[in-house]
């Protein structure tokens, strides 16, 4: 299996300048390749330029501009061109499926934050010994940079990336590992229901509260963004204000990740089998379609967009997608089984008699079956139904 590691870089001022120049030159390469594709399609009878053709031009580009493009790793520049090629492939895929195309755009210097090295030892070198407290990574054109390796890297390093996040720099590794040793079996199975009032409710009647990190930081973010709006462009004061907003967003993201990791780890340690709803989060946070007023052309009827915006904010703040991705990764490492089931009517179906109706849920938290009179918390009922559907799906697979 492949596992990723992310470590903080302890670079000097000169190394930070070199890393910034590396990002700038790769960004220039990305934008130049994008411009070539656009010009070829518009002016040469809709000719499509492929990755192979642009990669073959790298030698000439490096020879023409040795001080900028010529001093960086050839393989990292190929990875940047592949990145553009993947962006075009994703755009064409969305066109075929009827989605919004999202045509690849030019990247500003501040929006190009990652350079990839496809192979350890080709333009980069991860130097680490098990008992050496000082770890370094070497990048072509930058030199040996100190890394804060807070945990050991297990397995053979496959790829290396350098990433900028605000004022900090990180190195991201992917390592190939053998099959992990599974955790001891507990004999426990559980279904979980994700929500907003409670982040998680399980089929055993337990709840995990929603920390609402984004809402707690909203006042500070609002003040920081207002201060940013008052700053003049291209000034040192504006640069500091931008950094303040970025730091606040980064703190919220790290808090959300920390909560997701701890909650997922607790579930994986306790249960052998976990079932959850197969949520389509991208569709859940879509804005409602406008409703034109037939009696007054050019005006629109109320469509609940304001209330839906608040709900969308709460869904995004909960971070369900991040949590589910972490849960699947931890379960794979621990030898646990995770199954996603259809979420339809899970909170409207009575677990005692099986009656399905919207009237079974008179309020957000209350479940009261109109046929058999069963009462419970609505989220717990949803988790029980999710578990039953997950066990049925698992048995169908085995059968």
Order of SSEs: EHHHHEEEEEEEEEHHHEHEEHHEEEH
Question: Can you tell me the residue ranges where pLDDT is under 50 for at least 5 consecutive residues?
Answer: none
Secondary structural class:
alpha+beta
Q: Quick one: overall form? A: globular
Q: Give me the oligomer status.
A: single chain
Largest sheet: 7 strands, antiparallel
Please give the radius of gyration in angstroms: 26 Å
Give the end-to-end Cα distance, rounded to a whole number of Å.
27 Å
pLDDT averaged over residues: 91
Tell how many strands the DSSP assignment holds.
Answer: 16
Helicity level, as a percent range? Answer: 40-55%
Strand-residue proportion: 15-25%
How many domains would you count in the coordinates?
2
Largest sheet, order of strands side by side? Answer: 2-6-7-1-5-4-3
* Number of continuous helical runs: 11
Keywords:
399 residues, seven-stranded antiparallel sheet, alpha+beta
Structure characterization notes:
With 399 residues, this protein is an alpha+beta fold. It folds into two domains: 2-176, no CATH class; 189-398, no CATH class. The chain is 43% helix and 20% strand. It has helices spanning 13-43, 51-56, 58-64, 74-96, 213-216, 218-229, 236-270, 281-284, 305-318, 320-334, 378-398, and strands at residues 2-10, 114-117, 124-127, 135-139, 143-148, 156-165, 168-176, 189-194, 198-202, 207-209, 273-277, 291-292, 300-301, 337-341, 366-368, 375-377. It has a seven-stranded antiparallel β-sheet. A hairpin with a 2-residue loop joins β6 (156-165) and β7. α6 (218-229) packs antiparallel against α7. The longest helix is centred in the middle third of the chain and has 35 residues, at 236-270. It is globular.
